[in-house]
């Protein structure tokens, strides 16, 4: 009796978390598709980043779908789904390591982009950009 309750709980958690992974993966793919379609990729590096995020989202969504199929009784689908989820996990770890290694360059790129956006949208008048200068100052020193 105890084993069947534990099994039911694990199966319920498998289904719950994979539904969440499925929604996140599909959402990432949809966001990247919209950003690429609307032209927000900008330079080649921006488009490449969006394609990488969409590939990660696709791996996450397909892995979650495979695990959900596996929860219904297909061992092969469960193995494939877990392999895709492991691949998505490795991609997240690699992205986090890359981001940590390039944090100063990423901060500088964010500051440059914010400065260009403020200058383009609001001009260079001091009275119109005072609040935005305070935000930039906060970003720069925190």
Automatic annotation (TrEMBL):
Membrane spanning residue stretches: 12-36, 48-68, 80-101
Listed InterPro entries: Tetraspanin/Peripherin
Subcellular location: Membrane
Keyword Nucleotide-binding recorded: no
Membrane topology: Multi-pass membrane protein
Entry keyword set: Membrane, Transmembrane, Transmembrane helix
Annotated Gene Ontology cellular component terms: membrane
Superkingdom of origin: Eukaryota
Principal location listed in the UniProt entry: membrane
Record Pfam families: Tetraspanin
This protein's name: (apollo) hypothetical protein
């Amino acid at each position: 009796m105890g084993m069947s309750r534990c099994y039911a709980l694990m199966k319920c958690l498998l289904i719950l978390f994979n539904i969440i992974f499925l929604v996140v993966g599909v959402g990432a793919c949809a966001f990247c598709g919209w950003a690429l379609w609307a032209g927000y990729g900008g330079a080649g590096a921006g488009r490449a980043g969006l394609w990488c995020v969409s590939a990660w989202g696709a791996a996450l969504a397909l892995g979650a779908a495979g695990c959900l199929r596996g929860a219904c009784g297909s061992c092969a689908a469960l193995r494939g789904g877990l392999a895709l989820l492991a691949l998505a996990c490795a991609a997240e770890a690699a992205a986090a390591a890359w981001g940590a290694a390039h944090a100063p360059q990423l901060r500088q790129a964010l500051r440059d982009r914010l400065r260009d956006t403020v200058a383009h949208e609001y001009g260079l008048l001091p009275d119109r950009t005072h609040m935005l200068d305070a935000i930039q100052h906060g970003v720069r020193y925190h």
